[in-house]
Amino acid sequence: MYSGIQKIEEIIDYIENHLTSEIDCEELALRMTLSVYEFRRIFSFIVGVPISEYIRKRKLSLAACDIITNPRASIHEISKKYGYSTLASFSKALTSITVFLQPFVKKNHPRYCFSPDQSSNGR
Predict the structure, then answer these.
(1) Which of 6, 74, 84, 106 is most buried, with most CB under 10 Å away?
(2) Average pLDDT score over residue span 94-111
(3) Cβ distance 68 to 53 under 8 Å?
(4) How many C-beta neighbours within 10 Å does residue 93 have?
(5) Is the model's pTM score more than 0.70?
(6) How far apart are CA 27 and CA 65, in angstroms?
(7) What distance in Å separates the CA atoms of residue 106 and residue 122, rounded to the nearest whole number?
(8) Nearest-CA neighbor of 55 among 86, 107, 11?
């Protein structure tokens, strides 16, 4: 019998083990023997968020943990580790979901902070 919940749990385990790699939705759908459309619908229904949002938020939460647990770590290296091509896009994404982290980043990595008034000065 098809156990959608069990297969989604396997998919989540796979995602968790590959968060520092590129995750292909097509490959995940194949693992569940579903079309990409069906997979996205089922994942979203069972988990409560779209697959892309789940992956993005998990990557950002791990990046935030890396920043907090190792304040001397390079923000640039952390951003690359989780698939961000620019510091600006990483900073914006991180700021959008982790407002609580801003004081820590401002204190320990002030040159990487993003705020709307800084966006025009080339950072």
Answers:
(1) 84
(2) 62
(3) no
(4) 19
(5) yes
(6) 28
(7) 18
(8) 11
